Structure formats: C-alpha cells, structure tokens
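Journal club side-thread
Mid-discussion, someone asked how the predicted structure for our own chain would compare to the paper's figures. Pasting it here so we can look after the session.
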Amino acid sequence: MPNDALEPLPSECPAPAATPTVSIALGGGGARGLAHIHVIEVLDELGVRPQLIAGSSIGAIMGAAMAAGLSGREIREHTLDAVGRPAEALGRIWGLRPATLSDFWSNGLRISQFNLERVLRAFLHRGIPDRFEELKIPLKVIAADFYEQCERVCETGALYPALAASAALPALFLPVRIDGRVLVDGGLWNPVPFDHVAGTADITVGVDVVGRPTGDDGQIPNSIDSLYGASQLTMRSMINLKLKQGAPDLFFRPEVGRFRVLDFLRAKDILEHTAGIREEFKRALEAQFERHARMRG
C-alpha cells in the first residue's frame, strides 16, 4: 500500500487551537495610568486584539488609543513627545489659554478654566477618531453622573466629550454635559471597570493604577498628600469590594505609588519605574493561554 494512503485526509487533520479571546479593563489614576502602555505593548507582542476595552479616566484615554488601532509603541512615542518634554507640553497648554484677558479673569485664575476636551484634542494622537463608531475595537468609557449619583457608560456617539467626562477630576477640570447629564471622573465611581468586561472573553484582565501613599508610616502627610491619599483610600475600598464580588481572571497593580495624579511631565520616569509589569503580565497571560490550550485538548 502506498505510504500516502496512510496520510489523513485534509478534513481529518486536527484544527489548530484557537487563541483564547481577551477583554481588558484599564483603571483610572491620572499620570500613573501611563503604566497602561506596558500592558498594551505586551498585548501587541503576543498578537492579542481585545474583544472589548473598558476604561475609567486615564484608562479610558489609553483604551481609546488602543481601540483606535494604535500600537503600544506608537502610544509610547506619542506620549513622550507630547508630555515627556516639559517645553513642548507647556507650549501646548499655553495654546489653550483664554483668548482675552477678560476671559482669563472672568471665573478666577484656576486650572478648571481649561476645557478638558480641548486639552485632550491638543495632546492626544491624531489617530484617535471623533466617534466611537470609528474605533476598531469596542470601547466602554466610564463616567459618573454628578446629580444622579450613578455610573454612566458611554459607548456610542462623540468620543472626545466622553473621554473628557471620564477624566474630569473635580476641582481640576470642569464637568462635561452629555445628553443633558452632568458627568465627572469615572474613577470616582468605578476605578477599575472590570465588571464591564465580565463574560465577554475567555480571559478578562483588570489593571489598577490607583496607587497608594508612599513614605514613612509614622509621618503626618501635608494637606495635599492627605487629599490625594483620601481619594486613594476610597477608591481602594471600592476596588477591594468589587474583587470580592467577582474578580477578573487576571488583575494587576503596577508600582505607581511614588507618582502623583498630575505627574505627566514625569512620563519617562513613570514608564521606567513601572516596567516590571511587562514581564509579570506576559507570564500570567501566557499561562492562561496554556491553560486554555490544555482544556481544549
């Protein structure tokens, strides 16, 4: 009998194991959220395109860049160009100043005069489109309804107002009005929105960049550090409660505590200090892939 007669017919050949699907939730934390770039780069390295991305605050902004089809490398390079160079960053901010002196003083001298949507358009990559429908990966942007005291999920329509609402930290930026509702920072309600990716993929991931206060445990913090630390305390409590109710398959907390919410000019330092999350995330995700491959036999 010819040897080729023993070869299986094409229809009998085992199908290659499909790569497990992944959905990811990126948390809020201001400049600390630049650590999300490492996670995006690992997904690129492993050839993973998320089924769904959910994000609060800076997590929504990073998620929008990924959903637009930008690679982690592109996001990194643009971030370092836009905010990693103080002169360049301050020039962009100066371009957002009020047009006239009367506009400048009309509401007092404060950062919240800046329209956050305008800030985002000045700093974000041009590859991020204007509307959710133009994104390449589905995106859920989490914001908090100031008057209804509840969560609002934006996933259709104009993208930049939703991103601005999700990152509108009170006292720093003005709230954003969408569909008649006044919205503020989504991290205040849902710091790491992994509940919004539950059941949407084989593997779900949450990345927490809230951080925690650093320093001597016996040292009394100053008023500013007390304010930041109190917000971290509240968000940490919410996250821990949600983890007990239903944690994602993988959950990570990069070491971001030494950085403050507005430390964007320290982008290079943040990326260098949080680089350890790359290998941790890669190993954990590959282990999940291997587990799913064994389950599929």
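Post-session note: The radius of gyration is 21 Å.
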